[in-house]
Design brief:
- GO terms for molecular function: 5-amino-6-(5-phosphoribosylamino)uracil reductase activity.
- Its EC number is 1.1.1.193.
- InterPro entries: DHFR-like_dom_sf, RibDG_C, Riboflavin_Biosynth_HTPR.
- Pathway: Cofactor biosynthesis; riboflavin biosynthesis.
- By secondary structure, the chain is α/β, with parallel strands linked by helices.
- It has 2 domains: about 100 residues, Dihydrofolate Reductase, subunit A; about 110 residues, 3-Layer(aba) Sandwich (Dihydrofolate Reductase, subunit A).
- Helix content is about 25%, strand content about 25%.
- Strands 5-4-3-2-6-1-7-9-8 form a 9-stranded mixed beta sheet, with helices on both faces.
- α2 links the parallel β2 and β3.
- The chain is globular and about 45 Å long.
- The two termini are about 20 Å apart.
Amino acid sequence: MLPRLVIHNSISPDGSTTGFDANLDVHYGILGSYEPDAMIVGSNTAKVGTQFFCEKIPPEDKEDFKKPDIHPDDTRAYWMIADSRGTLEGLMHVFRRSEYSKDIIVLVSEKTPESYINYLKERDYDFIRAGVERVDVRQGLEIAGERYGFKLVVSDSGGILNSILLEQGLVDEISLVLTPEIVGKSGTNLFRGIEKSGIQLELSRNEIVEKKYVHLVYRVLKE
């Protein structure tokens, strides 16, 4: 069964996800309020995000080759990273060490390099194989729901993965933190990869946060 899926992102009024300093306390504070079972992110977004965790990629140590001990009361979300090309080989320990992550689950495809699969196995990362050339996100989410009992997944990713999620009709809700800054031509549109038009939304909630940001929540009206 498919988990409920929410897209969450911080954007400028002209729809960009880059070119401004996002308030991470507000962004992740709102995301955490959803209490998701897992967060899903694309490999490119994850790779760019390593700069937020460390200035320089640290070497692996023996603790990076085994799963972390997870307490039954741990409320942190798992991170699901779609990485069919093995983009994050040598970087996974950065995410596993994060205080915000329970552990990492990697979504791969049939064409994922075997060297990358061995890299994941050697370090005891869970992975879900879904799709042939690229990750079949729908199938991956279905397997995650069945295997781990996930009920709610939040996408904290970029335009490519979010566009795929919308086009495939997987999104139930869109949560946007509106930052009062116009980016202009240098911006990166949140849904720049989407080809399908006419996706209808219904505003379900709006609120002012810290007298500067606006949190908008839309329900996706499915056909």
